[in-house]
Amino acid sequence: MPLAIAAGNGALAAWGALLCLSAFATLGGGSPWVPANALGAWFVRWLQTADPTATTRFYADATLGGILLSGVAGALGGMFWWACLTHWRGARPLVLAVLLALVGLGLVRRIVAPALDPLMLRDLPGLVPWWSTGQDWLTARRWPGLHTALWRSGVWWAAAVVYGLLLGLGFQLDRRRSYQEQGNGSDVAAAGSV
């Protein structure tokens, strides 16, 4: 697999994960623009200090910047993953891709986001559960905010799993295609030499 294909697979997988986050935001009663705006706030600094409801609107700079940043970060992740696979030949690509996506998200959530884009760590509309406003059994058991934290982190982890699965699946499909091309090429060469 060439490096350019790995970068393309990574970008497509990242956009798939962004769609997953948008679906969670919409299901949570928010806007599908929230995840892209949360990423785009890295470019558009005023959005980091704005009211969280400001992320629900489409902005040409923040929303498109978030989509672009997602693709670039996914492409870099895809190239890193490809480099890992060239050294770990016996590794299962799907498992390795999900594992690297989860580790990458952990690094982003703990190191990169607090420094560059703290908006990704806040309670954004739609990325908190719709049940978080009422009394429930978690709050009654003296665990206030646990359900919100589990939902918020679970949404990001689910998106990381989607990224890893799409990245690994893209590699497996490309590997299968290249094996078929090699098989067809060797059959043609064998037929020509007879």
Could you explain the architecture of this structure?
By secondary structure, the protein is mainly α. It has one domain. It has helices at 3-27, 34-40, 46-49, 60-87, 93-116, 137-140, 146-193. Helix 1 runs antiparallel to helix 7. The longest helix has 48 residues, at 146-193. It is elongated, with a radius of gyration of 20 Å. The protein starts with a helix and ends with a helix. Mean pLDDT is 77; it is low at 129-147 and 187-194.
What is the compact description of this entry?
This protein is mostly helical and 194 residues long.
List the keywords.
single chain; 194 residues; mainly alpha; 7 helices; 0% strand; elongated; disordered C terminus
Shape: elongated
- Tally of strands: 0
Helix proportion = over 70%
Residue-averaged pLDDT: 77
What is the topology?
Blueprint: H1 3-27, H2 34-40, H3 46-49, H4 60-87, H5 93-116, H6 137-140, H7 146-193
